Structures are given as C-alpha cells and as structure tokens.
Amino acid sequence: MLLEVESVWGGYGSKDVVRGVSCGAEAGEILCLVGPNGCGKTTLFRLMLGILPIRQGHIRIDGREVSGLSPKELSGLIAYIPQYHNPVYAYTALDVVVMGRAARFSAFDTPREDDREAAFAAMEKLNVLSLANEKYTALSGGQRQMVLIARAICQSARIFVLDEPAANLDYANQQRLMEALRDLAKKGYCVVMSTHSPEHPASIGNKALLMREGQVAAFGTPAQVITSAHLEAVYGIPIDVVTVQDSRGVKRTICLPVGGGK
After folding, report:
1. How far is CA 88 from the centre of its chain?
2. Cα 195 to chain center, whole Å?
3. Is 99 a domain residue?
4. Number of structural domains the chain divides into
5. Per the domain annotation, does 44 fall within a domain?
6. Helix (H) or strand (E) holding 118
7. pLDDT (tens digit, 9 = 90+) per residue, 25-69?
8. CA angle, 33 as apex, 251 and 64 as ends, to 5°?
9. Residue 74 belongs to domain spanning
10. What CA–CA distance (Å, rounded) separates 152 from 149?
C-alpha cells in the first residue's frame, strides 16, 4: 500500500489528539477525511507529513516509515497543499511552482532550466500554463489552488495532502477543483484531503475516513461510511443521505440535515 496508517497515536506534548487511527490509500485513489472541527484531521495530516512525532503506531509511505525519512526524502514522496497561501512577495505563478523543486538545490543555487521546464509541464497538466507570468497575489482563490497543486506535482511527490482545499472557494471553483483532483488520481497520484462536506467522498472519493474526537468513527468506501447513522453519530443531528440523478443521468449523493420546521 502506498500510504498506510496503522494504529497511530500522537498530538501535542503529552496530549494525544489522534488516538488509534488506522486507514490507507493506494496510488490512483482519493481518500477523504470527514468530521467536525477539532476531531483530529489536521493533526493526522501533520503526523503523516512528519511535522509531529508519532507516539505509537506506524505511518508508512511505500513501505517506508515516515519517522525514518529525512525531510528531503519525505518531500519526494508527499506534498502538502495548504488551504490558503499568501506570500509576502509578489512572485509570479511560475516562481511559486518552481519552488516545488527547492529540495533539489541549496539555498545559494538558482533554479536551472530543467527546473523551469518541470514547472511548465506541471502547470500544463492542470491547464494553468496561461497563468505562468501572472502575479500569484493577483490570482483568484481557485487559481491559487491550481498553482499550489502544480507546485506539488513539480515537487515529484506521489501523495498530495490537502487540508480543506474547497473551504474558501466559490461553488464553481469547488467543482473545478474536484475535477482536477479526480484527474490527478486517474494519472496515478494518491490524493488525501479533508473536507467539511460529506458529499465530497461520494462524488470523487474511493475511500472515506470519518473521525470523531480523534478516533475512527468509520473507514471504508464512501457508500459504507457516508450513511445517515454514521453522520448522525458524529455530528449529533439527524441527516438524510439520498441519491439523485442529475440532468445528465449521473447519480449524485446528497446529505440533507433533517429540519424540524414546517
């Protein structure tokens, strides 16, 4: 398995925020983490990325323990794509993507031609090559997300970790982002993302991890995890999970809180 999380405990100081979590994903799969604020999703990401120490359990990438990898080795395997990124300097979008190659040269080196070519190729994969010379600070939220994903591709990572990537995007850009993540999985990348929308796993995910108070509430396929019973147990409110068919004949899963009004 490309990403394997086995009975992991960890957190901050002596406090375990993540408690006994197990999950995993293969190349070409999208794993969606779902759960309320404070349930441990971001902490689990930090453990995956080697930012926090694992107190107990194992996290392996392609069979290698994350705790035994150097930062350079880890950067070649897993990339973090933040929800929001606003640099101090007005770099071009191309400059931001080239930064994905930073682990390949020292602080006193400048990017080489092959670094720029890799950045161009990454942007072309996401159809954002036209933004190459635009100021990153002037881009829309959706465009910035695509540029940051291109940076991760340029980093040559096999696993992309995204912390609530759709949180600050309008509805249209959320859909464009979901399509881009689906396309990346088709190209063989492993995508791990957290979301506040339980509908996202059903629309693009292969696997879903539902968390509650740092523990696994359910893990499996979206159909197994995103159920009325599981969602009510985690969120504390009745939620209907229904399947509808859109105007193009595609089946869609919708989660509806059950209202008490007339």
Report:
1. 24
2. 9
3. yes
4. 1
5. yes
6. helix 113-125
7. 999 999 999 999 999 999 999 999 999 999 999 999 999 999 999
8. 120
9. 3-226
10. 5
Indicate whether 111 belongs to any domain: yes
Judge whether residue 109 has pLDDT over 70. Answer: no
CB 131 within 8 A of CB 147: yes
Higher pLDDT pick, 247 / 19 = 19
Give the mean model confidence (pLDDT) for residues 154-174.
89
Secondary structure tally for the chain: helices H, strands E: 9, 12
200 vs 178: CA distance, rounded Å:
8
| DSSP single-letter state for residue 182 | H
| Domain assignment present for 71 | yes
Task: Compute, in degrees rounded to 10, the torsion defined by CA atoms 137, 74, 79, 91.
Answer: 10
CATH of the domain at 123: 3.40.50.300
Q: What is the pLDDT of residues 29-39, one digit of tens each?
A: 999 999 999 99
| Predicted pLDDT at 250 | 86
